[in-house]
From TrEMBL:
GO MF, one example: oxidoreductase activity
Keywords carried by this UniProt record: Oxidoreductase
Source organism superkingdom: Bacteria
SUPFAM superfamilies xrefs: NAD(P)-binding Rossmann-fold domains
Pfam families, per database record: adh_short_C2
Keyword Oxidoreductase: yes
Similarity annotation: Belongs to the short-chain dehydrogenases/reductases (SDR) family.
Name under which the protein is recorded: Oxidoreductase
Length: 267
């Protein structure tokens, strides 16, 4: 099934489409899975922890029994053997993929002098290597669908320097460029590739990096829309990019940040 043959009936814009979401057990990945399930998709989410996967599956099954269209697979995006197993499971279950949200990521927020080699390697392995090979391994499944759409989760930090995120920001800049390159490389296969750059979004990673609630007010004050983003804000953007509504958009980055990177708050 390609963009042009997608059913857009009252059964939902993603009716019968198969979409992979890596890192789907919380935050932006979980919110996107919920939205796509509401729109009729068959959704595959990954995570590295069985308990978190089980909890996510329970949350996504409520309140309407959507679990029949949900597949959870324990997989580490940085481990190629896990990605091979993941694609084999998807091939057996669905035979194809219509979309991919390469969302799995980690953040080590330290100043340059504090970064250890293990932190560097882990961040690069998940945020860059993991994204690249997630896409590569998914290609035969996207080809089986006659094409599709890939969305890569980047970050606002590729547009504006952040002192405590030298390695994290560099990996996000890498996948931002990767989305542009893949958009060129895969266009002839009918595969569109875009990235999104979320601003300050309330997730577990955000809370871990900003444990003091008082700091949230200072962060909010720097956002022209005067609020922190919600995971659902990202889910809506990802759904748009995965759908035929964006059929002439590829190799682009969509910034979803409340104006953080491009506008100065009025007061």
């Amino acid at each position: 099934m390609t963009d042009s043959t997608l059913e857009t009936t009252d059964r939902g814009a993603f009716y019968n489409r198969a979409v992979l979401i890596t890192g789907g057990t919380s935050g932006m990945g979980l919110a996107t899975a919920r939205l796509l399930l509401d729109e009729g998709a068959h959704v595959i989410i990954t995570g590295r922890d069985d308990a978190r996967l089980a909890r996510a599956a329970e949350q996504l099954d409520k309140p309407s029994g959507r679990g029949a269209r949900l597949l959870t697979v324990r997989a580490d995006a940085a481990v190629l053997a896990d990605l091979d197993r993941l694609t084999a499971v998807i091939r057996e279950r669905h035979g194809r993929l219509d979309g991919v949200f390469a969302n799995a990521g980690v953040g080590v927020f330290q100043r340059t002098a504090e970064v250890a080699e293990d932190d560097f390697d882990h961040t690069v392995d998940v945020n860059f290597k993991g994204v690249f090979f997630t896409v590569q391994k998914a290609l035969p499944l996207l080809d089986a669908a006659g094409g599709g759409s890939i969305v890569i989760n980047a970050s606002w930090t590729l547009h504006r320097g952040l002192a405590v995120a030298p390695v994290y920001a560099a990996t996000k800049a890498a996948v931002h460029n990767l989305a542009r390159t893949l958009g060129s490389d895969l266009a002839e296969r009918g595969i569109r590739v875009n990235s999104i750059s979320p601003g300050y979004i309330v997730t577990e990673m955000f809370d871990a990096a900003n444990p003091d609630p008082a700091s949230h007010e200072a962060i909010r004050a720097g956002v022209p829309l005067k609020r922190l983003g919600q995971a659902e804000d990202i889910a809506e953007t990802v759904a748009f990019l995965l759908s035929p509504r964006s059929s002439y958009i590829t190799a682009q980055d969509i910034v979803v940040d409340g104006g953080l990177t491009t506008a100065v708050p009025a007061s």
